[in-house]
Amino acid sequence: EPVISWAIEYSTWKLFILEMDICLSQLQDQSIAISKLPIIDYVKKIIKLARIMLNSCWKLLDTLSPIMSRAYAILERCHCFKPWPPSDLITECISCVCTAIKYEPLQAFEDLIHTRFMPYSIDNIYNIPLSFDGGNIGSIILAYEKQARYYSMTISFLTLVRESLRSINDQYKMKRNSNLTVSVCHFQADLVATINFVTLHIFTDLHRWNFSDSGEQEKIGLLCLEIFENTLYSELDIKQSNSSSSVSLSVYFAQTIRKSDECLVKLVNILSTGTSIVRNYEPSERNLKPTQILKSTLRIILRIYELTSMFKSANLASSINGKEAEVAVFPGEHDRLLLSSSSYLFCRWNPEILILSLNLFKNLCLNVPMSIYANLGHDAETLRDLLISHLRMKDMDLKVKEAILELLIVIMQTQPGLVVLLLNLEVPEENEIMKSNRTSSVRFNDMSCLSFTTQLLRDHSENLQSSGAVDVSPSYQLLCLSVELLYYVWKDHRILALDSLRAIPSFWNHLAALLKNMPKKSNEEIGYHVKASAYTLQIMAIELSLLSGSKISSLNNSVKNIFVDAFKESTELIAGNLLRGTSMECEGEFELTLSDFEADKASHILTLMKSWRTFTVIMSKVEGIDINNTTKIDTMSKIIECLDYQLSRESSSSYISVAYELSCLLDIMINLWSSHLGKSAELFIEKLTLLLLNATKSDVGLPDAIKPQLFTALISLFQTVRNSKNNQIKDQTFIDLTTIICETIQRYNFPPFRRNEQKKMIGEMFKDRTKNTRSNMQVLTSKEYKESVDKAKTKKNRLPIASTYLLCEIIQLHINLEALLPTFIEHNVIQTLLKFMELSFQQDDGAELIEAALCLFIQMTKKTATAAESLVLNGVSKYLCLDFPQNYTLPIVDSMSNKKDTAMYAGETKLKKKSGTKSEWRRTWRLGISLMSILLGISRHSFLTDAFNFVGVHYERMEKVLASVRYNQSLESLEEAEEIMNFLFQLAHFENKWQFDLPVVFSRMQISIMSLCRSCTILLSRSQLLHYMVKHRSPEKKPGTTTQHLSISTNLKTVTFSKEADEDQMSPEIRALFENVQICLASILCKGLSALRQFSPDLMYLVTENNIERLDCKPMLLLSYNAPAAEDDGPVSFGTMLACQTMALTLLNKLDYHRSTLLKSPDNPSLNSSVSADTSHKSKLRSALLYILENCQVLILSQALLYLRQSDISNNDKQMLRWELSTELGNFLNGVSRYFTRGGSHSSPRHADTSVTSSNNLSLSFSTTPNKDDSINTNSKTWTTNNNGQSPRKVGIKFADSSDQKFFHIMDTIVHRMLNRTNNTN
């Protein structure tokens, strides 16, 4: 029979897909109990086969995508299975998806979210608690598995969530690009909803579930804890889809735990119950999961406290998202956590649990405001002995010892009660001291933390000595932590502990041994050695600062030599090994470079350099420990070489940071040792100039952050050369350095610090503060924040300030400024500085920068008139006229003025003032006036209009300053008044022009000058009054307060005193201040009289000309001859001028009396020192007083002759004038004659020994009276005498025919001839 046969070829995978499609189609028929059909087993085996194949080769994922898509469909329709969900099939589908998630987490998890199998959010993610739906798996777990007591789907679901978190976080760490962030943003809310479902419906409710096997409960709990751990250590940022705001997933989940009290209690309960496992531990597989549960719980709680310490700062919450400022804590559970963590410290059988418990204990000390000692009670000593015994065990894991030392260091900082217990010092009783006949010696017990640290240092030092250069130390991290522990003992000034450490033989030798023999095994060990060296130098610095001069002198020479050797070793370590070449070969493995040390901004090498800087500064200031000059010069030379090497390398953050620290250190050392440099200062100037020149010409360029320190160091070197008066610097060095500075000024353009730049700075500060390290877990207070902002402003403005002041030093030291002017012109230095002044005035900021620019302008104008012309042409007066009134806000409050007006003025001042201190703007104002006076003195008529504009704008301010001299004797106010008088004196030369253009201003300023002279006369003539006002003057006022100055009249009413002050009874501080005030008042009076002489007609013109009707000038002085009273506020009269010259003569006699008394005293060191100290003050004051005598004489006679030539003055008044003045001036000249007869020397400012004159040459002697104005250009004539040098009349007053007394001889002649005439003379 014929047989019909078919040859059929089919694909097994198509049959598999067909089976899965049949299963899915039968799900739609509600009448079929599909869960009982065999097809469920077939589909389960198919999915299991796909999972196994993916595990073996994940590249088959695309090939198996049809099966994977149907697995997702089964999960999507799992709630449709009747009569119950097939747990084995759903579990296998979840396992298959979990396998895919390991390799493509984003796509697989997003596909899973679309099935609604996982929990999903139904609200905004930023709402806490988040509203979510449990999805298909949630309904299955809560409705089916809790009743069936079979939790295979729950375990698979938790495994899926854990692997999803791990895979997504790993891929985020690897890529970190924007596309990945956008992908995560699509399902971030559902991811958070899934984690919240596990937290709220599984973990916190787990104790209510029924389990047939306790192993399942432990497994589910462990999976929940692992999910929490992965979430808290995740680096994912959750962002809103329509907003740029974001919050980290770890912080968000920490808040979720904080909101769930049940979750907090559950975590603490796990630790509490786990203590029994530690005590009754038996190694077995049964204890494996409980141990893992304990580890995960400890990690979770530890991470929550770490987040708390990171984001605890409230004042930075505005710069980050508000969600990150609120972090989870454990309210009411700290005591239980403390006791539980202390119990785990006994867990020797598992080092990992022991390390975690130590870290948790450390974080409790850092973040919980409570006394650990009080909570532990008697168990504290047991805990101490346990920790010390762990340290002493040779078989203990090194990581455990390191964790213990870190805990001890934190306790030293935060728990003062436990510190005393840990130090465990033994203080001998008085009976023992009496029996042993020795001083008290404090010792520490064997169970002291100091015992282990000192033993470790001793072993390290002995190993180095025995093995030479070979390093056999077990762990450099232990050494580093031990030295850090000792550092906090010194930092907290634990006196007894310090005494016990100092008593250890060779302790300083053991400590200093850490600075020698750098290890060459690995980068990590070298980093720890560098850090240990930094703490060693800090300990030595604190030790030197604690010791007084007597204690240092009593130190053994060996100890002093140790400190000196430590300085040399540290110099060799840093400048010789680490920074010169910055590379060392490790033991046949790799080459170590500086970048391997770098840990962002807190690298160990930078810490070592800062410690070296501190140690160097303190050691240089300690008397008794000397560093020879050769070592100092060699050290600075090495620093310059290292800096040159760093600047020649490729630009990176590490090299720039090191170069910055080197430049700071060089600046400090030059300032400290400038007096010991000698001729090396010029050599260092040339080296630094060459360094700057090479760095500027290189491709890398010189960073702006390094220039200020180098410029400041050069300023100190130039000052040293200038003080030595031996300038041998090459001209080319001046030119090169000037070019570099001018290029810096032109490129930098001096932008002022603007407020919108604070946001970036706050973000950088926050990142620095929130690093996950123990040393950075600190809270940034509002005070520290403000200080950081001020430092940022100062740092930004430091470069232009240093550049400008360095130019000032170059101009002062260089002989020929004309050679440097082409460089100034080429780089537009003057225009750039003026532009900066304008910007700073507009921003109401940068007073220090404006001050530096004005100082440079003053130095330039003093050197050459070309600079003055350039300033005038560029309109420097525009900025000083128009911008100063908006910025100068320091009120001068007159004690006699209305209080209401004073309060109103202070209110306006408060509104105007935005930044900068009063003293800064006051110095700037003084420099502006000084520049105006110098420019007017040089440019004369070409600058006259600008000068009139300046006085027209600022005359009210000038009036208040001049009036303030009467009641405010602070040196700041007096110096300001002196600068104003310099300017007014220069302006007084153009009296007619001034009176014509600004008649009101001229009149008011003339009255102010005369009142100023009266105030100075009153104060100088009443020494006791001046002493009282100087002693009781009000201090500088603080913000928000008002300063009240006492006027002269107020002082007269409140105190009674003699006229003369007893200078011998003054304190040294008050006496020095009194003498300075006295000199300032005399100098101001000199300048005031000089200005008044310009307002008065020329005396020689009045004497020689008979017809002066064409002279349009009115007298200034009133016809009153009484000395001015202290409370006198009226117009100035002849009596004021007579009192002024009488005051000057009285003080001259007093100065000579004191000098003669001291010279006649026996040899006495104190007297000799007082003589040398008073020499400068006496010479300055004597010169000023003689100058006052001359000008008073000329001014009185000029005004008197002017009155006598006036036709509208009655004869009686003229006769009274002759009689009064002839009497007073005759008596005065008799006193002058007696003064010269006794040996008084004439050293007025017209001679070469002038010390009171300012930059403006106030040479106003009678024979060299300057012309006031071109409109009155009369030739001054010298008054001549007879051939024998005597006056034509026979007088009782006789002056010697010498240059010192010739002036007074002429004045005597004028008084006799002009004032003693009859009425018909007129």
Describe this structure in words.
This protein is an all-alpha fold and 1322 residues long. It has 54 helices and eight strands. The strands form four sheets. The chain has a two-stranded antiparallel sheet. Helix 34 packs parallel to helix 37 and helix 51 (1134-1160) runs parallel beside helix 53 (1211-1237). It starts with 11 loop residues before the first helix and ends in a 7-residue tail after the last helix.
Q: What is the secondary structure topology, with strand pairs?
A:
Layout: H1 12-26, H2 39-56, H3 65-76, H4 87-103, H5 105-114, E1 120-121, E2 132-133, H6 135-148, H7 152-175, H8 178-203, H9 214-232, E3 237-239, E4 246-248, H10 249-259, H11 261-279, H12 288-310, H13 334-344, H14 351-367, H15 372-376, H16 379-392, H17 398-414, H18 416-423, E5 425-426, H19 430-436, E6 443-444, H20 449-467, H21 476-491, H22 495-502, H23 507-512, H24 523-546, H25 549-554, H26 557-578, E7 583-585, E8 591-593, H27 604-621, H28 629-647, H29 653-673, H30 680-697, H31 707-724, H32 731-748, H33 758-769, H34 782-813, H35 821-826, H36 829-843, H37 847-863, H38 865-873, H39 876-882, H40 884-887, H41 899-912, H42 918-939, H43 944-964, H44 971-988, H45 991-997, H46 999-1021, H47 1023-1031, H48 1048-1054, H49 1068-1095, H50 1099-1104, H51 1134-1160, H52 1165-1204, H53 1211-1237, H54 1302-1315
Antiparallel strand pairs: 1-2, 3-4, 5-6, 7-8
Helix pairs in contact: 1-2, 1-3, 2-4, 3-4, 4-5, 4-7, 5-8, 7-8, 7-9, 8-9, 8-10, 9-12, 11-12, 11-13, 12-14, 13-14, 14-17, 17-18, 17-21, 20-21, 21-24, 24-27, 26-27, 26-28, 27-29, 28-29, 28-30, 29-31, 30-31, 30-32, 31-34, 32-34, 33-34, 34-37, 36-37, 37-38, 37-42, 39-43, 42-44, 43-44, ...
